[in-house]
Amino acid sequence: MNAKDDRDESEPSGALRNEDPSEPRGAGGKTAAAKGAGAGEDPPAGSRAAANDGDRAPADDDGAGAAADDADADDANADADDVEEPPAARPRGPSMWDILRDSFFTFDRRTLGFTRILLGFFLIGDLFRRSWAWSDMFADIGVLPNHVSLWRPQGSGNFSLVNAFSTQGELWVLWVVIFATYVCLLIGWKTKLMQVLSLVFVTSMNGRVLLIENGGYVVHNLLLLWTCFLPMGDRFSLDALLASLKRSRERTADDLNDRTTIDDPLKPVSHVTVLGPVLLIQIAAIYFFNVVHKTGPAWKNGTAIHYVLYVDRMVTPIVADVRDYAPKFLILFMTKMVISFEAAIPVCLLAPVGRAWARRLTMVMMNVLHIGFGMTFVLGPFAWALCVMSTLLFGREDWEIAARTMRRVHRTRVVLYDPRSPGAVLACRVLKRMDRFGLLTFEASSSAVHGLSVRRPDGALGAGAEALADIIAAIPLGPAVAWALRLPLVRDAVTAAMAAAHRRSLGRALGVRIPERSEVAPPPAPLRLWGRKGLIALRELGALVMFAGAVNQAAVELWVIKNRWKVPHPEETRVLAQKLRFLQGWFMFSPNPVMDDGTIVVDAVTVDGRHIDPFTGKPPNFDLLHAKSFGYTQIWCDYFARIKLPANTTYRDAMKEYMYRYPERTGRPEDAIVSGDVYWVKDWNPKWGSTESYGEEREKLFSFQNPKAQARAEAEPGQPDQSPAN
């Protein structure tokens, strides 16, 4: 790996600056910093450090003079020495290992930080998705209480921490703990611990009720598993910020303008790990096996999407309203596009040439596919987990393009700060680490308004909220929020708050202190470095062990393999794959898409004689032929589809108890359920060229009687007949 590959992302490349190399360079690029400091002023010492090492002049002025003297001496002695010096050795090109390492084994740490942020948002969104059925699924008053799950295990010994929480109060406390963990992961505080806890929480929730598990839950588990082996907190995190503040204690403007100490020198931009090829193989396997299993005629003739769009238990209401108007050519195009994308993604991922563009094409295809899936169907975390996973494919070249695109030289500012204010000094130390484009230069000024102000390239001064807006606009993605500080009411409130904080020395009151002296922490002791290497070796070994379990699980689970070869499944690898549900069954909508539709309908009778479906709170509706989406969430969609299977009859008693508790959920005693019948109602999706479903059928799964409610009804005279309707 050359020096260019390992450079710090805090240093903008020469292509970003548009500088005249003959002019002194400040932290902000071209001579903007010098202009901001006023005509005739030199740029602050240390501002040159923001320039990229690869763009620095090979020698300073003294070096150039020495080189000239050497050249004159060589000319004077040319006649005395006729010996020719050997030509300079040509630089050696990258080796095969260099190419393989950069193509398959390397992650950009900026990519890992960016993915962590998206992962945090995704996890928080998924937690809120579960909140609507939190007690229904996990509490002892839900459809599958803990004691039922423990005494009648759903899987082969899967582990779930949620089994330790039974009551609604306990579960909502757990919800708060999980939410706090996800927020900490989002901001990058104690990142590695939060990664591990998030993995435990996700797999525990996904494994608690296997009646609602689908392929999306498996992808969700695998996303948390593989990212646990990656240093997601080395960039764009609170951990990285605090470590940098601790490693380098700046006191003067020269210290603040020295950008060489921002990032940990032991953690270069490129992170090389065996997880690189593991993750590429995992993503490729998801799509490769999904496409090879799609052997049905509906996929071959291009009509598969038509049938899927009419599965009312899965499609969203918006799609149900517009699907009748979709032209045939669009259906055929979308079906072929799905197959083509799923087939092309593995090829692009593993392509040995054109890596940068192949990865970009992969990201586009993955996000087009899954944003479309996520907006069309209720598939749980499937679509969004793979969208987050796709961002791990961002490379160094993509970050350079992003930096060139977002960096704007006109946003350069000189930050004037009061060196006597602890709060202002701390703010500048933090801003130095957030200023990834090198657009800010720091200058001590005891006359800085409110302790922190700016000087613009034209020499104009800014203070208060205007100054803060200028500063925020200079940092990456800052313009997206800086405009809000310029709104009239917000501007006045922020300016007043800055003035009050400076006047009352809020930073000093909160215990903030100016560093006693400028210093940079020494490198770690050799023993600590050896310990770090040992942990890295254990991490890499752990990733390989889990990969071995994934390969064995795939061999015994995937149809195209297990139908041809009998692969042993040792207990050791079975535990690795199944204990936390790290499965590898990739055959979604295979070999044909779903061509029928169905749902659970309950015809229950209340104590006052009404017929009601306790799952919907409405009278039972048996008309599927004219349905336009049932409006289910993924949780209820899969629960109804699984509870009707003969293999799950053992969990129907818990379902009955859940229905009996219907008046507890409504708060109406008259809603008590006396008896009822449970049906699986199904129909067939419209044939190709039609929009009308057909063949509606009704299958009675079981009947039930509630002795307590029935005794109450018999004790109260004048009650109507409580027999279910036929």
How much is the average pLDDT? 86
Strand order across the largest sheet: 5-4-6-7
Sheet having the most strands: 4 strands, mixed
> What Rg do the Cα atoms give?
32 Å
Q: Sum up the overall morphology in one term.
A: globular
C-alpha end-to-end distance? 75 Å
Poorly predicted segments = 1-83
The total count of strands amounts to: 12
The number of helices is: 32
Which structural class do the helices and strands define?
A: alpha+beta
Strand content is 5-15%
Helix proportion range: 40-55%
Structure description:
The protein is an alpha+beta fold. It has 32 helices and twelve strands. α5 packs antiparallel against α8 (168-187), α17 packs across α18 and α18 packs antiparallel against α19 (382-390). The longest helix has 32 residues, at 526-557.
Brief rundown of the structure:
The chain is of the alpha+beta class.
Any chance you could write out the topology, listing elements then pairs?
Elements: H1 14-17, H2 32-36, H3 61-76, H4 96-105, E1 106-108, H5 109-131, H6 134-138, H7 146-151, H8 168-187, H9 191-208, H10 215-227, H11 238-247, E2 248-249, H12 253-256, E3 270-272, H13 275-292, H14 297-300, H15 304-308, H16 317-322, H17 328-350, H18 355-376, H19 382-390, H20 396-406, E4 413-417, H21 422-434, E5 440-444, E6 452-455, E7 461-462, H22 464-474, H23 479-482, H24 488-503, H25 506-509, E8 519-520, H26 526-557, H27 559-562, H28 571-578, E9 596-606, E10 611-612, H29 634-643, H30 652-660, H31 662-666, E11 673-684, E12 694-705, H32 707-715
Parallel strand pairs: 4-5
Antiparallel strand pairs: 1-3, 2-8, 4-6, 6-7, 9-10, 9-11, 11-12
Helix pairs in contact: 5-8, 5-19, 8-9, 9-10, 10-19, 13-17, 17-18, 18-19, 26-28
